[in-house]
Write a structure and sequence with these properties.
- This protein has helices at residues 6-10, 16-41, 43-53, 62-78, 86-111, 118-141, 143-146, 160-181, 186-202, 211-227, 242-247.
- The protein is mainly α.
- Helix 3 (43-53) runs parallel beside helix 10 (211-227), helix 4 (62-78) crosses helix 10 and helix 5 runs antiparallel to helix 6 (118-141).
- It is elongated, with a radius of gyration of 23 Å.
- The two termini are 46 Å apart.
């Protein structure tokens, strides 16, 4: 079953051109939705404005900017370094890389039905990675569930992306399994799979899908601000500088050690 291309079997009932057109349409919806999100929320204008305002104590050269961009790509994008919680980072990485594997292998199998069976295996592996990371996050890691004691079945508008992603991948794997078994229920699951996929890729302006494009830009801007000394007009993390000591809001902590108060991190925030 892991070597089986369900989209090749589907071509006996649905023309390959129709499936390929659907994939292209979903890519167009993602691009158009992201552009709409940028214009509607003013994200590009914000980042360019912050870039112009971040004039620190020194100018950064091209080599430094390239090094910062490389570090942002490796640490913040590829390794999800912004997550301090290890479990949350692992769940995010499983979901992110699984989603990439699943989407890329889907495109290959749709546009090249006779492709090497390794793509079918990658499709299954990527989908299972999404399910492990996504369901782990949904039931055990979400802040309102893990820290606030809310029901894991409470759904909010912000959950549109993760729920549509889990629905699409779950239904896709079930559909492929039913097709491999020759079950007549495969068509019903396939219809639900298409609906969930359309919601996932067509709801970019209303979901967190576009965040994957904004977060690298925000991480790069933050690193540049720290490197050139502007620090986004916020106090630095050191109290050795008398000026920064004087800016502290609590006089009691102006001369306190930097690690004072971090004992709160020794236990999980489960105080509901």
């Amino acid at each position: 079953m892991l070597d089986f291309n369900p989209f090749a079997a589907l071509s006996a009932s649905i023309p390959p051109a129709a499936m390929q057109g659907y994939v292209v349409l979903m890519a167009v919806l993602v691009a158009a939705g992201t552009l709409f999100d940028i214009v509607h929320k003013g994200s590009a204008r914000y980042f360019f404005g912050e870039w112009r305002k971040s004039k620190g104590s020194r100018e950064l050269g091209g080599g430094e900017l390239a090094a910062i961009a490389a570090k942002t790509a490796v640490v913040d994008v590829l390794a999800s370094g912004e997550f301090c919680n290890t479990k949350r980072r692992i769940a995010h990485l499983l979901t992110m890389y699984g989603f990439i594997l699943h989407v890329v292998s889907t495109v290959v199998m749709v546009f090249a039905p006779g492709a090497d069976p390794v793509w079918a295996r990658l499709w299954w592996i990527g989908g299972l990675m999404v399910l492990v990371g996504g369901y782990w996050f949904w039931f055990f890691i979400r802040v309102d569930v893990a820290a606030e004691g809310s029901s894991p079945f409470r759904v909010m508008h912000a959950d549109l992306f993760v729920l549509s992603l889990l629905a699409a991948v779950t239904l896709g794997l079930i559909w492929a399994w039913l097709v491999a078994r020759g079950s007549g229920a495969a068509w019903l699951v396939f219809a639900l799979y298409v609906i969930a996929s359309t919601v996932l890729f067509g709801s970019v302006p209303w979901s967190k899908f576009a965040h994957m494009f904004f977060k690298p830009a925000a991480a790069f801007q933050k690193r540049v601000a720290h490197a050139n000394g502007s620090a986004e007009n916020l106090p630095t993390l050191t109290r050795d500088d008398p000026e920064q000591q004087a800016r502290h809001s609590m006089e009691l902590l102006r001369n306190a050690p930097m690690d004072m108060g971090l004992g709160i991190k020794r236990e999980a925030p489960r105080h509901y």
